[in-house]
């Protein structure tokens, strides 16, 4: 626990015109982590100095971004089993003060709504059709076709609020809820699209013959077969690699979410965010970013 007197003394030096002093103060506050955010925000509210306010804003962002990197690395190193947690970490990059429990509760609420109407005797197709009715009609989820490239489509908190998302986020929410209902539905990392595979008790061994059928979460849960995936790849003049037909791991999913955001910020010349997303991508790929 850092000394509050030391924190306040350092904060008072944030308006020092000497860059060497400022850099020393910044480095010290950065090492203290998230516990200095509240005193920094209080100082920002009480300050009338534009330079100090600007430096506080930059410092708070750096601390929060460092925490996102730490959380992302811990998630990856711990096996990346919880896709929802990975998506929440990405969400915290843009919305550091987001209510994590609210997101979890929203997912549980959707699950409960479907569970109440699901019966044990239903087969896989019947379960998916019921799921689709509630997910798209009752809960109101749909593909964001009007603003397809909007970065908000990649942040789970925003997608749960607006009920609109891109193919990968809709598929993620769909599969997270499905797995909570013991429906073995997993993401498939298809080029230029992201779909779902309904499997026969898939257990991470990537056997294609365990896939019963595919689901297009972006198109209201449309059910289709392997030949449709093959046709899609042929249209794109892409080879039919086995991984285009099989469930992918959660690392690959989070990497693709981050890649979408990186491409958006790069194409729109939002340099700082593009550089930060590059660091997150490098970390998730297991590289040390310097």
Automatic annotation (TrEMBL):
InterPro entries: SirB1_N
Top-rank lineage group of the source organism: Bacteria
Domain (Protein SirB1 N-terminal) ranges: 102-259
A Pfam family reported for this protein in Swiss-Prot or TrEMBL: Transglut_core2
Signal peptide positions on this chain: none
Sequence similarity: Belongs to the UPF0162 family.
Protein name per UniProt: Regulator of sirC expression with transglutaminase-like and TPR domain
Organism: Albibacterium bauzanense
Taxonomic lineage from the root: Bacteria, Pseudomonadati, Bacteroidota, Sphingobacteriia, Sphingobacteriales
